[in-house]
Amino acid sequence: MAVSVRTFPLRRFLVPRPQPTRSQGAPSPRLPLSSAPAPCRHKNQEDNHSYYVSRLYGPSEPRSRELWVDVAAANRSQVKIHTILSNTHRQASRVVLSFEFAFYGHLLRQITIATGGFIFMGDVIHRMLTATQYVAPLMANFNPGYSDNSTVVYFDNGTVFVVQWDHVYLQGWEDRGSFTFQAALHRDGRIVFGYKEIPMSVPEISSSQHPVKTGLSDAFMILNPSPDVPESRRRSIFEYHRIELDPSKITSMSAVEFTPLPTCLQHRSCDACMSSDLSFNCSWCHVLQRCSSGFDRYRQEWMDYGCAQEAEGRTCEDFQDEYHNSASPDTSFSPYDGDLTTTSSSLFIDSLTTEDDTKLNPYAGGDGLQNNLSPKTKGTPVHLGTIVGIVLAVLLVAAIILAGIYINGHPTSNAALFFIERRPHHWPAMKFRSHPDHSTYAEVEPSGHEKEGFMEAEQC
């Protein structure tokens, strides 16, 4: 049976609970905890959060107006009103960016826009989108379906991607007025929160039905064996860093700008990694050809390949000597042999039972492993592989044609009903659901289709 994914603050398991700070990050010998927030000031306020530097601009600051992106004045071909999100409550939909956006050092091309005033930045969809991996200018129980004037709009010009929640109302608090705010993801990695209309004090917003958050968060996922179900995997989410803004500072015409700081992941060579002067404890993993502190979205690979143990007391010269020895013509061992063996075994993960309803991704970091696996099987002649490929392609086309003919001639058969129920316009995006402890979601129609066709999955 599928169960919800649980999240745990990472520091809870690794070190004694520190005093509360504005930035909660993964523990590390060289990773200092953020200092307490600066005293309240009317002018712009700056805080260092290890991964980002945040700057808060009040209503009287000219910079707050400069940071606001006027979506109404933008090129209409680059602005899209999401018709489903603009007419419903507790839903989310995935959108593809026109550029790669660096979030905590990870390059993303897809994000998930939610009606609840936030963007989910994770690559694996689960039932607790509000828990972590978010960009939240103002996460709350907004209901764009309450008013015809409420819209969820996004804008992408190749340089900046903007999501604007325009004239949206809080569920059950409609008499307090509408909210208009936006989140802008800039190509250079900056994140900007802009607030045009905030009709009430943010600390007054109730979190009983939906979390109320303002800030950033990221996490990594770990697959662990389940003690209850044989041959199953339990997906656990560990939040390794969070930035929480002071909600009392979120007012009309204010703005917050997050400027990214360098991370270990930016280093592409052993020398650059080991000589890094960053506050993170950067280590080089020769097997993965990656620099990391061990606390990022690639942690599953970092653990599987024993990168932490590999880097202990080692220098770049040691790695180079090992590489030259392994490449000697006197031996048939290749430095990538171990990679290929492990990768082939990891492909069986998808066939195992999981205790959540997400799709398993054996490559937690996207192309983190695949980019480092060079093809080495060259024993089969090229012309034979070409012939086999052509034969398989012909057989596949023939099978598709025959299946189409059969389904067309037998519209009430099990095969026909199977494909009818799963034709593209019935494939879903996502929908939130109420839950006593947290906000969950089911799946709904993708962008561009009417609401009458929603397929709503039962909560597990």
From TrEMBL:
Transmembrane regions: 382-407
Q: What GO CC annotations are associated with the protein?
A: membrane
Keyword check for Aminoacyl-tRNA synthetase: no
Q: Which family does it belong to?
A: Belongs to the plexin family.
- Keyword Phosphoprotein listed: no
Pfam families with a match to the protein in the record: PSI
Question: Which keywords fit this entry according to its UniProt record?
Answer: Glycoprotein, Membrane, Signal, Transmembrane, Transmembrane helix
The protein's topology relative to the membrane is: Single-pass type I membrane protein
Annotated region described as Disordered, given as residue ranges: 16-45, 439-460
What is the protein named? Answer: Plexin domain containing 1
Could you name the domain of life of the organism this protein comes from? Eukaryota
Subcellular localization, as worded in the UniProt entry: Membrane
> So which residues are the signal peptide here?
none
Low complexity compositional bias: what residue ranges?
26-39
Which residues fall in a compositionally biased region of kind Basic and acidic residues? 439-454
